[in-house]
Amino acid sequence: xxxxxxxxxxxxxxxxxxxxxxxxxxxxxxxxxxxxxxxxxxxxxxxxxxxxxxxxxxxxxxxxxxxxxxxxxxxxxxxxxxxxxxxxxxxxxxxxxxxxxxxxxxxxxxxxxxxxxxxxxxxxxxxxxxxxxxxxxxxxxxxxxxxxxxxxxxxxxxxxxxxxxxxxxxxxxxxxxxxxxxxxxxxxxxxxxxxxxxxxxxxxxxxxxxxxxxxxxxxxxxxxxxxxxxxxxxxxxxxxxxxxxxxxxxxxxxxxxxxxxxxxxxxxxxxxxxxxxxxxxxxxxxxxxxxxxxxxxxxxxxxxxxxxxxxxxxxxxxxxxxxxxxxxxxxxxxxxxxxxxxxxxxxxxxxxxxxxxxxxxxxxxxxxxxxxxxxxxxxxxxxxxxxxxxxxxxxxxxxxxxxxxxxxxxxxxxxxxxxxxxxxxxxxxxxxxxxxxxxxxxxxxxxxxxxxxxxx
Length: 456
What we know:
Blueprint: H1 2-27, H2 37-41, H3 50-67, H4 71-81, H5 93-103, H6 116-128, H7 132-145, H8 154-172, H9 176-192, H10 199-218, H11 226-237, H12 243-259, H13 262-279, H14 284-300, H15 304-321, H16 325-341, H17 345-357, H18 367-383, H19 387-397, H20 406-424
Helix pairs in contact: 6-7, 7-8, 8-9, 8-10, 9-10, 10-11, 11-12, 12-13, 13-14, 14-15, 14-16, 15-16, 16-17, 16-18, 17-18, 18-19, 18-20, 19-20
């Protein structure tokens, strides 16, 4: 038995080795010759030498062909003339387009219409040279050539984005009329096909809104350009969370609230709260601040449940982290106003007076925080039927000068309106038309407003 096992043990490895060898032969791996094209392509740093290598290879091939004779040359010729092992690839429209791109059949030099790639390349060259009108004409032609594609087509969105950046270039080169004309055209296209818009549309809408808002301010008018800001926000909302989108949502919520578009203000602040959870889940100061904004917007909507819940959550966060008196006081006065508007006057007064007591802190609170707390207490006292005391605190809210911000100026105007109405009319009882300090989304701050801006 022992003698029978040894031959088997010897033949089994030998058989496996022969099988592996035959398998390797059947795969027919072709090793590239040192002077072949494949070998040259592997050295990407030798690009300038490629033409010389190709010429040398052709010469060597011709010399070898003239010198090679006999059965070996015939066998090599037969092998070269044999059909390839792999079948020909089936023709498809996609492969035809790719082949046309490789061969340049779709270029203007071939006699046919220029491709969108050629048009966009030429447009870039004209834009870099400052020839913006020529660039616009080329990009519009590229857009027309792709008009039959879906709005989600990468090519269409690429051309749309280049046109959006060109509109900004017109403005940067001191051509606002041309910039507005192209921008309005793109805004209308995006309105008809919202999927066209992406980051380029967000940038164009926001920059155009800023430019037009500054032009209106210089002319003595107030125009927040809310429709364009809404377009920028809605476009950004279809993308992914980012710090830029968080900052945009925060800004839009405040402008929409001041403009009276409470639905947009609520959508924007809800998006900001959600993005903050994804981007900076550990930033509890930012999370609490955003909840105060949401409470104020919900209060303006008369959504007392959401307003109270958000204010409670913000106050709890600030207590947990030991926030500064300004942050706590502004949050307490916000919650007090919510309670007072719901008719819980006793609880509202108690909480409002707690917030007011923070004004006596050793370190003075920022002027805007002092104004919010004094005006909030006045509002709660007015709701509780004490107009005389409310008038005192409204006047106190006007003592500090404006800090120069638009938010503080809006609050001052609202306090003056509330004071004038309180002096001229009957005591307020919380009716819908009663004077109120504005539900402006003013953040509670650690020290300065810039420290708790969500985009920071």
